């Protein structure tokens, strides 16, 4: 997905100098938000929906946090590293918890397996990006 790299790189405050780890993190955040929303929706349609209540809750929490983290991280005007770092930490935590819960259902539900994989990728991308923000 080169769109994000091009968009951020064209920002006047960035002038072509992009943080590749942060761009990957932003892309993973938005992708994970979509996966978690879709997984929650699929869980709601399962026959065993009552047993998936915690999974649905964590899916929805993770989706909202990923969306917010990606949105804050994409802003390049001004400086707000402290909030960005806090959001990325929260995102990594939400992804870890959601991924662990989805893993519990992955053998029964393919959508949970896919979501857990997306959560792990986003958690890793957030942790890598955190190390690049000063």
List the helices and strands and how they pair.
Elements: H1 2-9, H2 20-44, H3 53-74, H4 81-105, H5 110-130
Helix pairs in contact: 2-3, 2-5, 3-4, 4-5
| Structural class estimated from helices and strands | mainly alpha
Q: Spans with pLDDT under 50 lasting ≥5 residues? A: none
β-strand number? 0
Helix share of residues? over 70%
Give the amount of beta strand, in percent.
Answer: under 5%
Overall outline:
elongated
The end-to-end distance, rounded to whole angstroms, is: 25 Å
Main β-sheet, in a few words?
Answer: none
Over the alpha carbons, how many angstroms does the gyration radius reach?
Answer: 16 Å
Q: What's the rounded overall pLDDT mean?
A: 91
Report the order of strands and helices.
Answer: HHHHH
Given the structure, what is the number of helices?
5
